[in-house]
Structure to design on (79 residues):
């Protein structure tokens, strides 16, 4: 009841949200600006690939208190 539809139904592999943000909102983030995502622990490698293919450098991948990878910090490349 409280989560956005796209966050719960992200396409066949669950990654459509990340693809859309990385591709369609890139120009909304200034060059050198930052992007942070929280995600399912099984999606980290795929999300990093999506970001790198769309002009971001992944700076940090963060683990939660249960030692599961849960978030990342990326920076838009200067071009």
């Amino acid at each position: 009841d409280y989560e956005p539809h796209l966050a719960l139904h992200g396409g066949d592999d669950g990654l459509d949200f990340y693809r859309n943000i990385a591709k369609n909102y890139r120009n909304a983030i200034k060059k050198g600006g930052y992007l942070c995502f929280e995600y399912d622990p099984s999606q980290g490698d795929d999300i990093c690939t999506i970001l790198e293919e769309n002009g971001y450098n992944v700076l940090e991948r963060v683990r939660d208190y249960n030692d599961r990878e849960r978030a990342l910090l990326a920076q838009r490349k200067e071009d």
